[in-house]
Amino acid sequence: MSSSQTPQTDAPDLAEPSFGVEDTLPVFAPRNERERPALEASRAVVALFLRERTADLSVRQLAEHAGLSERTFYRTFPTKEDTIRPYVEAGLRHIVEQVRAAPPERPLRGVLIDAHAGLLDAARAHGDGVFLEVLYKHEPLRAVWLKVITDVEQAFAEVIAERLGVPPDSVQARLAAAAVVTSGRLALEPRAPDQRPSQVFERCLELLGPALLEPPRP
Fold first, then answer.
1. pLDDT tens-digit profile of 113-159?
2. Which of 32, 106, 138, 146 has its CA 20 to 30 A from that of 210?
3. What is the domain-level CATH number for residue 111?
4. Is residue 172 part of a domain?
C-alpha cells in the first residue's frame, strides 16, 4: 500500500452538509454500466472535497461518504487521489461530445463556448476558485488532475479536427486543443466577482484570434 493509500488517523471530522454540494454537481453518464459505480463514487468524493475545502481526508472517510467498504475502495481506486479521475474524465468527455453533436454549420468558437459554459458556471455554486484551491493545497491530487486534462487534449484535437476539416495530428488541431484545455483551467481560477467562468473562457478564446478556430483558407 502506497503512502497515499494509508488512512490518516488524525483526519479532521467532516462538517455537516451546509449547502448541498453533492446535489448541485452535474451528473454524467458512464460510457458503460461497468463504469457506473466508480463514476458515482468519484462524484461523491469530489463533492466531499469541495464541501470540506480540503483533500486531507482519510480513506475511511472517503469510502464511507461514497458508500464503499475500504476494501472495495482500494479495488476501485489505486490511490486516494485517483478518486477524482472518473468524474473529471466524464465531465471532459461530456464537453467533447457536446462539441461533436453541435450542428456542423455553427462556428467552432461558439460551439466551444456553449459546450463549456454550463459546467464552468456550475463551479460558482461552490465559491470561486474552490476546486483549484483544493487542488493546489494537495500536490498529489493536482498531479492527477493535470494528467487527466493533458490526456484529454487528444480527444479535443480529434473533435476540433473533425469540425475544421484538418488532420487530428495537425499543428492547428493540436494547438487549438491545448488552448481550449488551458482556457478552461484559467476560467476556474479566482476572478472578479462580476465575471462568470464562462465569460473568462470566452475572453480567452477571443485573445487567441480568429484563425486558430476557423477552417484553413484554400
1. 999 998 888 766 555 567 778 888 889 998 998 899 889 999 999 99
2. 146
3. 1.10.357.10
4. yes
pLDDT digits (tens, 9 = 90+) for 203-216: 999 999 889 999 99
Confidence of residue 172 (pLDDT cuts 50, 70, 90): very high
Instruction: Flag whether 168 is in a domain.
Output: yes
Cα distances (Å, whole numbers) of residue 177 to 147, 159, 170, 171, 213: 15, 9, 11, 10, 10
Which residue, among 93, 88, 63, 75, has the nearest Cα to 144 in the 3D structure?
88
Residue 142 CA: distances (Å) to CA of 1, 45, 137, 151, 168: 20, 15, 8, 14, 28
**By three-state DSSP, how is residue 78 classified?**
coil
Identity of the amino acid at 20: G
CB of 166 closer than 8 Å to CB of 106: no
Range of the domain at 195: 88-212
Name the one residue in this structure whose C-alpha cell is 462539441: 99
Is residue 46 assigned to a domain? no
The DSSP annotation for 139-177 comes to: HHHHHHHHHHHHHTHHHHHHHHHHHHTS-TTSHHHHHHH
In-domain check, residue 74: no
The structure's pTM equals: 0.83
- Residue count (the chain): 218
CB environment 38-68: b (16+ within 10 A), e (fewer) = bbbbbbbbbbbbbbbeebbbbbebbbebbeb
